[in-house]
Amino acid sequence: MADTSELPGPRRARALQPLLHDVVICVAAPAFTASPRDGQLRGARADGFYDHDRRLLHTLRLLLDGREPEPVGVQPLGPDRVRFTAVHRYPGDGTDDPTLIVERVRAAGQGETLLLRNVGTVTRVLRVDLTAATDLADIADVKRGITGRAVRPHADRTGPALSWRSATGRARLRAVECPEPPKTSADPAGGTFGWPRVELAPGDCWRVRLAVTGRAVPAPPGHPVAASPHVPWSDPVIHGDRRLVGLVRQGLADLRALRLADGSRHADHPEPATTPRHADGAGHRPPAPHDDQFIAAGCPWYLTLFGRDSIWSARMLLPLGTDLARGTLWTLARRQGTVHDDFREEAPGRILHELRPAESRHGHGLRLPAHYYGSVDATPLFVSLLVDAWRWGLPAADVEGLLPYAERAMDWIIGTCAKDGDGLLRYYPRPGGLLHQSWKDSTDAVRDAAGRRIEPPLALCEVQGYAYEAAAGLADLLAARGATERARALRDWAAALRDRFADAFWIDGKDGPAARYVAIAVGRDLDPVSGPASNMGQLLATGILDADGCADVAAWLAAPELNSGWGLRSRSAAVPGFNPMSYHGGSVWTHDTAIAVQGLCAAGRPTEAAALADGLLDAAVHFSYRMPELYGGDARTDTSPAPLAYPAACRPQGWSAASGVAVLAALLGLRPDAPRRLLTVRPLPPDLLGPLTVSGLRLAGADLSVRVDREGRTTVAGLPPEWRVSTGADDDSDSDSDSAGDSADAGSDTGTRAGPDPVG
């Protein structure tokens, strides 16, 4: 939302962030369109055609005989296009039935096609006008609710086209297919394509195709570009709960539309003067970009590279192959911090938080550079993504090449932990940068049990878990390469962090579901911030908690004050300041719930995992399986039969779209172990899971299928050479397959409900 001090004019009312809950969004990254449900772009809210964070058009209004058509329906045709249908009626007709149908098919990154159909019995003669205008606004201004001054168009002499140009962007609207060229006019407010006389006999159609193109000026070198048609993951086939099938299917479709590729070249982004080195001293340079793909954070506000978000999306999709992780890791490695820069908050080894075409102002004094490093979590998550990808079979050449960047990232983590002397990973924001620097990054994201805002520097609980997981995982990877001394040092460091965490973060739960809970954060004086929050759910799979700690956290996640019935609330409903429509103070985040489900499954808490997953899958039905960034945290009751949309949420959102695959893998209990060539498959118990069959998984380049029957018997087929599978809960040597073509059947005594509606 905008800061009134940055708006011109005396006593001007504060602009508000546009709401999105009823906006129709089509995306083909880096382009997207945002439209009201009638398809008419009127220059309001976030309406428009966009590319690379620049609004190309905010107005494209159709008039027939001087009137707007009457809308009757909207039909998504995929993540990147939509059909708007309307009718044009004639008062003099002897029937109430519409006789002229209007269809507009709008496609992100392309434009739209207008079709008029005469389905009546008399010839129609009408005037058709299309009015177009733009402010060529930056997405940051649009998000703040600011509509800029109209840019004057120019009629293009080379054909039926209108062109706009400003100091920051260019746009062009061109009629590329039409029965006859339109009459083109332009004035300071906008331009018009007009067809004064369109005659349609009964049964006739009239069609115009419009192309919308444009770009930011100047075009930033090395900025992400549209991805190639190749999708860097497999397409699984799932037979089981219809909700899970729908969530995965829609999520993967949205992820295809959110793909971007690294547009950098070494000439634009030279390697640091000191090339990162492995523990054995060998230096390596990253390979030349070769459609290294990653997932943009979300549409419309974050359609670009975000370190944290892109890492989590790639991490969640690892069961479908390592190519996306590879592209994400190399894209971030090329932009890893090399110097100390206060404005960018860059430091050697630190991983990028956000990449934009240009510096942007977000209101409330927030001013961010194009390359911004202000996150505390992207760096440990980068290390863990490499470790996880290695365990899933990332090719050795990529592991070898990326390892120096992971070691530099770990050096930044350890150095930052040493800054205050207590060994915890904190963030220290600069004035004008993000106040909070983990995934809960709104200004009021951290509150205590009394509802008071807590200011940084803070050590967030989940960030300590990320740091522990990164160090322990990197130690395993280094040990497998023979770097035993470095591995031992990292394990010792991780163990010390685990002890410090246990001493600093636990709070008395009083009358809660367990005797204690994990504080969302501790301050510089190790004062814990009271009030249960969802952050502790992201600790379960990191290894920083012992068994008793996992049990206590699981009890809190299952309690009604955090489990809304539709997913995990970001803040307990039992403390002051809870707001079910607050961005981080009570809403439900799709990815946060999915990560908690993963952790509960990993910690051997199947009942709690099933309850959270069941609520998330039910919520997915109400959102037509296109899960938003977040949604309302009101309790699920008989009088609240559906989750409430959060009106400004991105949809589609990268890690929300990837959450279906994360839940699927969690329910199956998939855990690869590259050094031992061992895949563990421990699904939830059959009474919670139901029958589930998945083919098209990928492990070390091999196609994998997993089947769990009604009795919980597990079958795995397609293991890569020399890999084994374990489905037993206690003995990894039981029921192991030792060849690529073998299967393993065994009873599973661990193992969410995939619901009552099996298919397949």
Task: Supply the key terms.
alpha+beta, disordered N terminus, 13 helices, 8-stranded antiparallel sheet
Give a short summary of the structure:
This protein is an alpha+beta fold and 760 residues long. It is built from 13 helices and 38 strands. The protein starts with 23 loop residues before the first strand and ends in a 13-residue tail after the last strand.
Q: Which structural category do the helix and sheet elements fall into?
A: alpha+beta
Kindly estimate the percentage of residues that lie in beta strands according to DSSP.
15-25%
> Based on DSSP secondary structure assignment, what is the total number of beta strands?
38
Instruction: Report strand order across the widest sheet.
Output: 7-8-9-10-17-14-13-12
Shape: globular
Helix content: 10-25%
User: Unreliable stretches, pLDDT < 50, 5 or more residues?
Assistant: 1-11, 265-289, 729-760
Tell me the radius of gyration. Answer: 27 Å
What count of helical segments does DSSP give? 13
Largest sheet, described in full?
A: 8 strands, antiparallel
Q: How far from one another are the termini?
A: 47 Å
The pLDDT mean sits at 90
Account of the protein in words:
- The protein is an alpha+beta fold and 760 residues long.
- Mean pLDDT is 90; it is low at 1-11, 265-289 and 729-760.
- The protein is globular and about 80 Å long.
